[in-house]
Amino acid sequence: MSLRIDIPVQRYGPNSTVTGTVTLIGTGDVDVSHISIVFSGQCKSKIVVSRGNNGSSTYRGRVYLFEYTQKLFSGPHTLHSNEHSWPFSFRFPATCGNSHGDRFQPVHHQLYSGSFHDDVSQPLPSTYTLAERGFQTRKSGYVSYQLEATLYKHNSGPFSASQSSTVKELLYVRPRDEAHPNPQMCTFQERFVCQSMHLLPEYATRSLTVKERLLSLGSQKPSASFKLTVDMATVGVCGQALPLYLSAEHDLERSTSPDSPTLLLKSVKVHLQARGAVRCVNDGFSSLFSEGDREECWDEEITISAMETIVHPLPISGRLDLGTIMNLKLGKTSGFSRLDPSFSTFNLELHYRLRVKVAFECGRRSFKADFVSHTFKLLDGEWIGELQHNIASPQATVPDTPAYEAAGPSEELPPYARNPELWTPSPGKVPPTSFADE
What's the pLDDT tens digit per position in 123-168? Predict the structure, then answer.
């Protein structure tokens, strides 16, 4: 006999209704003590440091965001070889409930110290997976939410399993609060000076002869001073357009060329610079050699869009709408199925910076500019209003169930972790008053 969890919806948001059934299937009879479900969320991190021929050291971080148990069936009772199902309904929490786990200590001796979030009542982070990164030092971690159903047998024999269980992963999305958040535009500028004979009208459209080049060696070349400005967003939404503007301004007072220079845009590349960090406790044998926790970061540059081998006039005292021209959108990118939004929790975090690389030509000379924002907050593509409408759980289709007394679900959904009669923490899981009190 085995258990199966059926849930019509696999994707949830804060306070979404989780409705489904636990079904006992198989042949033969089973003497059941009780059947229960455990709903939990956890953040786990791992750092493996290779020490060559001396092996490796492994550090781990474990935080349980919440963990609650509900009984669906109470025995003892012998269930016969036919299908039995028990319905359940509850709400997905919006914040951490009785979080507990490793006690992290401040890190002062490392070059990078993350801005991890230690509030035990913090909003739940979205489901997240950090695949193993690095070679000498490998980092990995995940945020997951799962529902486990377990059948506990009554008077099981010494050579038979005392319980049978199955697990179902639930995808959780932490949506953004605003439908149309402010992109919070930020301006970056860089000055350039071009000295070239091609700034003169007679040489603007042709190459210099050998004689003209020799004559120009001993003369003062005309110069053009100008300022390149990029206006970029510091807040973006996954799947939505990204505003980006480029402009140039001629500085007449610092220029000696008779006319305003002609600027030709040659290429533009827009990247997201991702920086993540993991935190693990420094315990056991490894604590003999260092103090504080172990933190490691990783960096990755993701290309959002690129325009190369172009010749586009860059207007002086005008503004070029690169966001529209390049059709910039923070959606699927080359090699990436999706972009994870920025977040920070107990032992995992992910942040971004926006980088714009520009190549242009003035007076037949090539120039490059590199603009990087201090921070870029990437919000989830789901808005709280849309999420509540799109993934509202439908009524579960529940087959006829045996008339056994079941402890747990009632007509009114439990307000999650506030009604001990319906939801109770797992044995031994007492909520700390603060993270440091564990």
Answer: 999 999 999 888 889 999 999 999 999 998 887 655 455 788 899 9
Cα angle, residue 6 at apex, residues 4 and 9 outer, rounded to 5°: 150
Cα–Cα distances (Å) from 261 to 208, 249, 438, in that order, read 18, 10, 66
Q: How does strand 377-379 pair with strand 235-237?
A: parallel
Secondary structure E strands in 221-262? 223-233, 235-237, 244-251
Structure tokens at 159: 């050579």
CA 437 to CA 103: how far, in whole Å?
A: 9
Q: How far apart are CA 1 and CA 27, in angstroms?
A: 6
Q: Which of 100, 93, 96, 95 is nearest to 62 (CA)?
A: 100
CB 230 within 8 A of CB 246: yes
Chain segment 238-270, per-residue pLDDT in tens: 888 999 999 999 998 888 888 888 899 999 999
Rounded distance between C-alpha atoms, residue 309 and residue 312, angstroms? 10
State how far the Cα of 221 lies from the Cα of 223, in Å rounded to an integer: 6
Gyration radius of the chain over CA positions: 30
Tokens of 300: 């990755």
- Inter-CA distances, 240 with 73, 128, 329, 373, Å: 47, 21, 5, 19
User: In terms of residues, how long is the chain?
Assistant: 438
As a whole number of angstroms, the distance between CA 44 and CA 192 comes to 48
pTM: 0.77
Query: How many whole angstroms separate alpha carbon 396 and alpha carbon 87?
Result: 8
How far, in Å, CA of 280 to CA of 295, rounded? 6
d(C-alpha 225, C-alpha 189), whole Å: 13
CB neighbourhood size of 76 (10 A): 12
Pairing relationship of beta strands 100-101 and 56-79 according to DSSP bridges:
antiparallel
Structure tokens of 133?
């990164």
Report how far residue 13's alpha carbon sits from residue 384's, in angstroms, rounded to the nearest whole number: 8
Q: What are phi and psi of 133, to 5 degrees?
A: -125, 150
Rounded CA-CA distance 298/400 in Å is 52
> How many whole angstroms separate alpha carbon 27 and alpha carbon 29?
7
Contacts of residue 108, Cβ cutoff 8 Å, sequence gap at least 6: 292
Nearest by Cα to 128 from 332, 383, 348, 351: 348
End-to-end CA distance of the chain: 39
The answer to whether 194 touches 216, Cβ cutoff 8 Å, is no
Task: Please state whether beta strands 318-321 and 343-344 pair in parallel, antiparallel, or not at all (unpaired).
Answer: unpaired
